[in-house]
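Aim 2, interim progress. The first record below pairs a target sequence with its structure tokens.
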Amino acid sequence: MSELSHLRLMASYNSWMNQKIVDAAATLPAHELAAERGAFFGSLLGTLNHLVAADTIWLRRFATHPARFGALDAVLALPAPGALDAVYSDDLAVLAAHRRWLDGLIEKWLAQLAEADLDHVLHYASTKGIRSQKRFGDLLLHFFNHQTHHRGQASTLLSQAGVDLGVTDLLMLIENVADHAAPPAPA
């Protein structure tokens, strides 16, 4: 499997898991979503907002790639989050709709990406203004790993609230994809 195929798989996993998290979160009352639970971003809602903020920041950076991916044009129209703890919405339904939109955009963008695009060195500044430059493919690995890290925190926060998220393993997605892609058994 190529590096780009792996990244596309991660984009699918990202969408699947984000939907699972949002669906599980939707079973909680608003006060439980916003309850301070000692997580890095405080609450489950704070963690989900952080993921939207961080994704928006990274997608806006990725949009500066010289390939000028059309799928990322819409993200450039969004306001840039001022900080990693920026709140997109305190309303889970609004946040969930935006999350689904972002995940669809990410998958559409990854479909436009070519293997050669991954070797470009992207120059960017952190939210604190620190300049950096890294290989684009490595930044995409970080992008998806960051999501996984904070979804793990969200899973713990859901568990603390008495909600079982169920299976979260990438293997489940791989098995489902493989099952649907398998040719029919001979008669």
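The second target in this work package is listed in the same format:
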Amino acid sequence: MRNHITTSRLASLAAPFAVAFALTAPLVANAGDYMNEHFWSAQPEGTAWVTNYGECWQSLHGANDLEPCVVAPAVPKEFTVRLNFEFDKYRLENIVNDSELQRLDDYIAQVQDTPVREQISLTGHTDAKGSEEYNYQLGKRRAETVQEYMISKGIPSDDIISVESRGKLDMLPDYDVFSVQQRRVKINAEYGG
């Protein structure tokens, strides 16, 4: 008799679990199909779409007619424009290597093609001729020239967060301190939202 009571109690305790399982079994059986057809997984290549966060996604078992993901190359965090300015000059018409403007144009196009917004800092440099104070001002004018040029090519002015000068303080070690190679503008990019 005691065995019968224990079995009956166990049966009465298990009954709600059996009902719950019976009700959820169809949901569990369809979960695989639901997940395969309605969820997406990250994929680096193939037919995919790009989220607002710049992530590339592809359906596991979905449509095949989506636009392919194209991952834009990241803008370098540091880029030096070797616009070798004539002595004591800071305008673009006073550079001795016009081909360097093409490098700057390529950089600007790369900034415009990336999905993220860069915060750009410009730093002007000079050679060692002249006083520290004078060279500081000259380096700043060179950086401002690059700023004006970038804005004229479509970079939003709000994206250029600082324009400064190091004057003759940060010399390139591979060149003479009086070399035209020292006259340059360094661009730094931080990635914003």
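The first helix runs from residue 2 to 38. This observation will shape the mutagenesis plan for the next reporting period.
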